[in-house]
Give the backbone structure.
Amino acid sequence: MTDTAALAARLDTAAREAAATTQLTADVALAAPGAYAVQRALVARRLARGERMVGVKMGLTSRAKMAQMGVDEVIWGRLTDAMWIPDGGAVDTAAHIHPRVEPEVAFLLDRTPVVGDDFAACVRAVAPALELIDSRYADFRFTLADVIADNTSAAGFVVGPWRPVPDGLDNLGVLLEVDGEVVQTGSTAAILGDPRRAFDAAVRLAGADGITLAPGWVVLAGAATAAVPLAPGSHVRAVVEGLGTASLTAR
Ligand code: 0L1
Ligand code: MG
């Protein structure tokens, strides 16, 4: 087994057994290109088990998360159908290591975009969304290369009702509620200043890795607030001004 395959297998096992592993970078030298190769191999294992790609997610899209990681570029990960949680659906917390949720905005692609394409010409609809993240590393601690290899902590996502793209997306109020209590407030401005920039980044970064974004795929634009831990029994709802809500219940 190559290093890349072995590292992907290690992260895959950690996710499937809900048992944290140590950072890959504690054992091997890894920079972003090698880390994306591990991510590709990691998701290839899921695809070999019958999952299919349904989109991509952008990560570290807020200035706060970028500063925390000491980077000035967003990262991206792959979404498969097995990660798609129906709106209002249930998440088994025992199937994850230390799951967290964050409110996001999702885009539905109408056609395959190329770099420089106009957002409005390529995106058919927009929706409020929740991302379930679960680092496969102990204590949710990692370097940039580690988190890229770990498919940018992607574990699941909920998409609320799709609606036509409104005129302005750059400053919509966002709430994250747990059991009816507001636990985080933010704005879509936290997503790269305007979540439409996440679409541009998705096209550029996934395209550079040979990924063709397909009509019907979802782009998760990034978090509008900090993520919060997902506790068993809790009901979580993202509310995005003018777009509606997306929710899940944790078991
Ligand atoms: O979706 C995200 O922004 C998460 C990116 C990875 C960092 C984290 O797990 O918080
Ligand atoms: Mg996210």
In short: The pocket of hexanedioic acid (ligand 1) is lined by residues 59-60, 65, 131, 133, 135, 147, 152-153, 222-223 (CB under 6 Å). The chain has a mean pLDDT of 96. The chain has one domain: 3-250. Residues 3-250 form a domain with the Fumarylacetoacetate hydrolase; domain 2 fold (CATH 3.90.850.10).
